[in-house]
Write a structure and sequence with these properties.
The chain is 24% helix and 24% strand.
Length: 760
């Protein structure tokens, strides 16, 4: 694969794209604390709102008395689940073409909660947050506590309560080849169980919004909705049907949004404020507290695998079964099970005899944010290859290379070139010396462990984009976009592509954030960058054509006789004859934007190989992990990560490096992160930074990152994605297993290590 359908996709010289240390348009204001996130907004006469939240794992309101709460001084309004405004809003949401509350169930203010801490029953509006808290305590609720589940295995036990959807209807199966024949072909068979622990999304900035209504002086008669704290992109599709406003009457000023890695859920606190503000006639702020945003990101799953293999390490048959927690249910059951059953990581091997069964269940463990890593079962292969290596006395990297198929299909005998380069570079950087489990000790007495994994560098983004590039009389190039900035620098990658294709200096390309702009580069993380830049490249080239057409008379030449560099147009035959871009606008005598040179392109990059479920391969990545385990304390230290990634083409080096560091942070979380529940009640017990132990920068040793550029992706310049499959909480668990010779269900806490070593 390569960027052969787009213009200039095979470009060989780059001056802007791939440059390191290019500051982001918003980097200064973020680094200095000047950035204002949606919930930072404070308006005169602003009110505050808080939801009543369920203290039970699963419950329904039988009766509710709000009289004492409503009488409390400072309380302005209390909206209950059966209020006519809520019922009207529910009807509007039910009839909307696009579901307004992705990941949330039913009503804006429901009377039944599917998980502990979910909004339920009422929302209080008061003059201070503290009065909201007091009022909530005064609401008298008669609860009907319903049976709850927080573990996927419990959901399949006889007599277990059904959480909205019957698990019998949520099973998926996938078979290819002849699995029994594959096992007969093998020289050995191994079986193992592994558990993918549940981890939190936990965005750094609590979700919420501030909303108010005002007459727009430039608009038609009628109030305009102003809201901070909801995405300027997909947020509009939620607000528009809910409040019956067109885009011209909807102003979403949120430029900065906290990093939300694949967290696609819009919270009720972000959607309720326009209703509350309309009722009160004043601005209203509603913001989750940090504990309210502990949503599961990686779903819990229990997997069993049976692997047949030959003496040379070739895998001949795979049989997998998985039981997966999909979290608290939506009205319609999720289709993830069928996707996971079909998209086995073993599809990237030459093993054509595979059988996969996938059993989804719904529990009351929390709302699933719709994924951090995908496919979730990727580490079934990571574990399998490590176990095969142990059984045969082989290097795990050799087992991987023995089984990986070539780029075109599972029967392709080749090896993706990028993977070979990634492994070679990674082994050199790691000073790689694989050893059997529990056989190497460091000079300080700690046990030494290694792990290796490879994965695809996928591009999930396949939606269309509308990109615009404008040259103005100030000799600057503008790229209008509506944001949001959400922890990724997709827009900066687009600016570098514009500079490259237009022949402009990087500092002359200005990202012009405007909530009414059409373009947004969001589509994931790195994969949104590579997909949107493919479209932006076409817009930049169209703009360059208009520029050269306008400049030709000035040079008394044809457009094809001209070219651009350093934000100037020059004559190819005599480069000393040049003029700045803005000259051709200024000469017309207009001082504003009447003759801005503007081009817009609408389109999407070619279909991603991701849809081939691993049976077609282009760009790949590798990760290497080294740990030291203290046999006396059970402590585990990750002493080094090495990540070598082929993204196809690096568009912005700083973003590339940041993605890889982020993926290793997610991965190290497998050693410490844990949702703890009281199974009897379904209540979460670890919704703070003490009990839920996320790794910090102080927990890490070196993270070395390296790029390989094969240009084999089919988005911009042959780029693809980077890190989705690389975020793997099970990865350091594999290194611990190599160190101590025992497999531990994550999190890998000191007590578990000591128990595995027979020391506790």
């Amino acid at each position: 694969m390569a960027d052969i359908e787009g213009s200039n996709g095979q470009r060989t010289e780059f001056k802007a794209v791939g440059r390191a240390n290019v500051p982001g348009r918003l980097s200064y204001t973020i680094a200095t604390g000047g950035a204002k996130f949606g919930t930072d907004a404070v308006l005169p006469n602003m009110l505050h709102a808080k939801f009543l939240r369920s203290p039970h794992g699963r419950a329904k309101i039988k009766n509710m008395d709000i009289s004492q709460a409503k009488a409390l001084e400072g309380v302005v309004d209390i909206v209950t689940w059966n209020d006519p405004d809520i019922q009207s809003m529910n009807a509007a949401m039910a009839n909307a073409e696009v579901k307004p509350m992705a990941g949330l169930q039913g009503s804006m203010v429901p009377n039944e909660a599917e998980t502990e801490d979910e909004e339920i029953g009422a929302v209080v509006v008061a003059v201070t947050p503290e009065i909201c808290d007091e009022a909530l305590k005064l609401i008298k609720v008669e609860w009907e506590v319903l049976p709850s589940l927080v573990d996927a295995l419990d959901a399949l036990k006889p007599g277990a309560p059904i959480i909205r959807h019957d698990p019998k209807k949520l099973a998926s199966n996938y078979t290819q080849g002849d699995v029994e024949a594959g096992f007969r072909e093998s020289d050995d068979i191994l079986e193992f169980d592994w558990v993918h622990s549940r981890t939190a999304s936990h965005p750094p900035n609590p979700n919420g919004s501030v909303a108010w209504w005002a007459q727009d002086p430039w608009g038609v008669e009628g109030p305009t909705l102003h809201i901070e704290g909801i995405s300027p992109t997909w947020g509009a599709f939620s607000l528009r049907p809910m409040y019956n406003v067109n885009f011209d009457k909807l102003h979403r000023g949120t430029l900065f949004q906290g990093g939300k890695y694949c967290d696609w859920i819009i919270r009720r606190s972000q959607l309720i404020t326009p209703l509350l503000a309309r009722r009160a006639g004043r601005p209203v702020r509603c913001v989750n507290e940090r504990q309210n945003d502990y949503y599961p990101a990686n779903p819990q799953r229990y997997s069993h695998a049976k692997i047949g293999f030959k003496k040379d390490g070739t895998i001949t048959a795979v049989e997998e079964s998985t039981i997966a927690d999909q979290g608290s249910p939506d009205e319609a059951p999720s289709m993830w099970g069928g996707f996971e059953a079909r998209f086995s990581p073993f599809n990237t091997t030459r093993c054509i005899h595979q059988k996969s069964s996938f059993q989804s269940v719904y529990t009351n463990s929390g709302r699933n944010t719709l994924s951090q890593t995908s496919p979730f079962n990727w580490d079934a292969m990571t574990v399998a290859e490590q176990l095969v290596a142990e059984r045969l006395g082989m290097d795990v990297t050799d087992v991987a290379l023995k089984n990986i198929h070539g780029p075109s299909s599972q029967t392709d005998p080749g090896i993706p070139p990028g993977l070979l380069q990634c492994i070679e570079k990674g082994k050199k950087a790691m000073n790689w010396k694989w050893h059997p489990a529990a056989t190497k000790k460091l000079p300080d007495g700690r046990m030494h462990g290694l792990a290796f994994r490879y994965a695809m560098s996928p591009r999930h983004a396949f939606q269309p984009y509308t990109a615009t590039v404008t040259i103005r009389g100030d000799n600057k190039v503008y790229v209008p976009l509506k944001g949001p900035w959400c922890g990724v620098y997709s827009a900066e990658a687009n600016a570098l592509v514009v500079a490259e294709e237009l022949g402009a200096m990087v500092e002359d390309v200005i990202l012009e954030y405007d909530e009414k702009a059409i373009f947004t580069p969001v589509g994931g993380g790195s994969d949104g960058s590579t997909a949107s830049t493919w479209v932006m490249k076409e817009a930049a080239l169209a703009c360059k054509k208009l520029l050269l057409d306008l400049a030709a008379p000035k040079f008394k030449a044809k457009p094809e006789d001209l070219d651009t560099k350093d934000t100037t147009v020059y004559l190819k035959s005599d480069p000393s004859k040049s003029f700045p871009f803005g000259k051709f606008i200024a000469d017309e005598g207009f001082g504003d934007h009447d003759l801005d040179i503007t081009a817009t392109f609408f389109g999407r990059p070619p279909a991603t190989t991701w849809n081939q479920a691993g049976k077609v391969l282009d760009v790949m990545n590798t990760s290497f992990c080294e740990v030291a385990v203290d046999p006396e304390t059970g402590g585990v230290e990750v002493t080094k990560f090495v990540v070598v990634c082929d993204p196809g083409k690096v568009l912005r080096m700083t973003s590339f490096e940041g993605q890889l560091h982020q993926a290793m942070f997610f991965s190290q979380g497998g050693l410490s992160e844990e949702f703890i529940y009281d199974k009897a009640t379904g209540v979460k017990l670890s919704t703070n930074m003490i009990e839920y132990k996320k790794p910090t920068i102080l927990d890490f040793g070196p993270i070395e990152t390296y790029a390989v550029e094969t240009r084999s992706g089919n988005a911009c310049y042959g780029a693809s994605g980077i890190s989705h499959c690389m975020a793997a909480p099970y990865f350091p668990v594999c290194a611990v297993a190599n160190a101590i010779g025992k497999w531990i269900v994550p999190p890998v806490t000191p007590d578990k290590v000591l128990k595995a070593l027979g020391m506790a």
